[in-house]
Design brief:
The complex is a heterodimer of chains A (451) and B (70). With 451 residues, chain A is an alpha+beta fold. Chain A folds into 3 domains: 100 residues, Rossmann fold, CATH 3.40.50; 70 residues, ATP-grasp fold, A domain (Dna Ligase, domain 1); 244 residues, D-amino Acid Aminotransferase, Chain A, domain 1. In chain A, β1, α1 and β2 form a beta-alpha-beta unit. The longest helix of chain A is centred in the middle third of the chain and has 19 residues. The N and C termini of chain A lie far apart (55 Å). In chain A, 49% of the residues are buried. Chain B is mostly beta strands. Chain B has no helices and 8 strands. A 4-stranded antiparallel β-sheet of chain B has the order 1-8-6-3, with no helix packed on it. In chain B, β4 and β5 form a beta hairpin. Chain B is globular. The chains are: A alpha+beta (451), B mainly beta (70). Chains A and B meet through loops of A and loops of B.
């Protein structure tokens, strides 16, 4: 096992990684920007390195500064967390070249899964179902129209390098397609420096359900069941749970088997997630693979009892997985609510000075925090300031616990989405498990505009 | 005279209109950036930009005046 690692990330995930390291006496080195000097994780780490100005390209995306800090600290490995450099193949390769261990899969796999068209082709070849659509980049609008007419509207226009909902749009006619193709291609070039586009059939009323996988360097791979992550605003997840209230045992097993087939074909190592769209008839289709730890990993930890960060460290250090698929069972139900610094109605960000943060404290509650009670929430980073995770014996018990906890959760000084979360978890459709990706649009927004 | 106010807290990413420019209703005056989101701030009514109250890189709070249109 490692004796010291550097965490190339910030906020709650840096704090989360430090917590596991402390359990195993692994020393931690944190990096921070000028905007994060006062962040809790900077204090919690054994040592911290200031790496630059607030903007991410001058700090958390600055590979040279992060490598320099790693060298100076004497760390043997780098944990990239999620977001930032976590799915940057060049960074993973550089870490290796510097004689350090990247806590994640190989640079080759990261690159392969980072290109959505390549990923689709690999998955299809591995026997994993993919959404009907183009297997190669579409060059122009005319070609796009021909394909769309062939597979049938509505279709999704997507940027190959896209993510977070950027460069992606649903269209239902030739006219809409023409507009959407060009505007999203332009956006994709601006945001990702890559204007490659592809077209997929749109799945109606889908759920977003993903499978957590774990594989070591000794040929062992297993899956840790699914996470249901359908409730999203601006294509970003808000509430996640495990297990999914929708899947039958048969489909759960099929999806797990498909995910393992993908892992074996890729020669994947470390923790990863295969995201699927699931339609109303439980048909599932590969969406993308995230070659890193996910924001919502705690719900999996809560129902399996496995510490995913611990497993990532062990795998990266060359250890073999010490348990097998048959050892894993689903225990109860877990839900995660992401606490965002944003307006509950418009979803506009709300950075600023926190004046109060008072957290509910009950058994079965877990907090992941990026802030303390008088933090300044910076406008430079993601609006997620905390996560609240609950575990209960059943979905009903977990929802009750979450509802009670949200009513005690107090944030003052900035706006937060607590009001939104409370409304979602008490909505009758949520209680019945009607969690499709259009939940916010279908049930939440109409409810708030009525009141 | 109308005051154009910030619809969210964040930093001024770009100033699109200059002092003295005439702008139409709905035309962008500035673009704010916050938490990885860019929000354009349009003029509600057409007119002339009398004064810009902010510069690129400034931090503004929700409700702060960005510009005055006459």
């Amino acid at each position: 096992m490692f004796s010291k690692i550097l965490i190339a990330n910030r906020g709650e995930i840096a704090a989360r990684i430090i917590r596991t390291c402390q359990r195993f006496n692994i020393k931690t080195a944190a990096v921070f920007s000028e905007a994060d000097q006062d962040a809790p994780y900077v204090q919690q780490a054994d040592e911290s390195y200031l790496i630059g100005k607030p903007r991410v390209n001058e700090s958390y995306l600055n590979v040279e500064k992060i490598i320099k800090a790693a060298k100076e600290s004497g760390a043997e490995a780098i944990h990239p967390g999620y977001g930032l450099l976590s799915e940057n193949a060049a960074f993973a390769e550089r870490v290796k070249q510097e004689g350090l261990t990247f806590i994640g899969p190989s640079a080759e796999v990261i690159a392969e899964m980072g290109d959505k068209i390549a990923a689709r082709n690999v998955m299809k070849a591995a026997g994993v179902p993919v959404v009907p659509g183009t297997m190669e980049a579409v060059e122009n609008v005319t070609e796009a129209k021909n394909i769309a007419e062939e597979i049938g509207y509505p279709v999704m226009v997507k940027a190959a390098a896209g993510g977070g909902g950027i460069g992606m749009q649903s269209v239902s006619s030739n006219e809409e397609l023409a507009k959407a193709f060009e505007s999203n291609q332009k956006r994709a070039k601006t945001f990702f420096g890559d204007g490659k586009m592809f077209i997929e059939k749109q799945i109606i009323n889908p759920r977003h359900i993903e499978i957590q996988v774990l594989a070591d360097h000794h040929g062992h791979a297993l899956h840790l069941f699914e996470r249901e992550c359908s409730i999203q605003r601006r294509h970003q997840k808000v509430i996640e749970e495990a297990p999914s209230p929708f899947l039958s045992e048969e489909t759960r097993k099929k999806m797990g088997d498909s995910a393992l087939q993908a892992v074996q074909t890729l020669g994947y190592t470390n923790a990863g997630t295969i995201e699927f769209l699931v339609d109303e008839n439980e048909n599932f289709y590969f969406l993308e693979m995230n070659t890193r730890l996910q924001v919502e990993h705690p719900v999996t930890e809560e129902i399996t009892g496995i510490d995913l960060v611990e497993q990532q460290l062990r795998v990266a250090a060359g250890e073999a997985l010490s348990f097998s698929q048959n050892d894993l069972v689903i225990n109860g139900h877990a839900i995660e609510a992401r606490i965002y610094a944003e307006d509950s109605n418009t979803f506009y960000p709300s950075p600023g000075q926190l004046t109060k943060l008072s957290l509910p404290e009950d058994p079965g509650l877990r907090h992941e925090l990026a802030v303390h009670s008088n933090s300044f929430v910076s406008p430079f980073y993601d609006p997620m300031i905390a996560k609240l995770i609950v575990h209960g014996e059943s979905r009903e018990a977990a929802v009750q616990k979450l509802t009670a906890a949200l009513h005690q959760y107090e944030i003052e000084g900035i706006k937060s989405n607590i009001t939104m979360l409370k409304r979602i978890v008490t909505n009758e459709h949520y209680l019945q498990g009607h969690t499709t990706t259009s939940f916010i649009q279908d049930y939440y927004l109409p409810a708030i505009s009525k009141s | 005279m109308t005051e154009i106010k910030a619809s969210m807290a964040g930093s001024v990413w770009k100033i699109v209109a200059q002092q003295g420019d005439s702008v139409a209703a709905g035309e962008d005056i500035a673009i704010l950036e916050s938490m990885k989101m860019e929000i354009p701030i349009p003029a509600e009514d057409g007119g002339t930009v009398k004064e810009l109250k902010v510069a690129e890189g400034d931090f503004v709070n929700e409700g702060d005046v960005i510009a005055i249109i006459e």
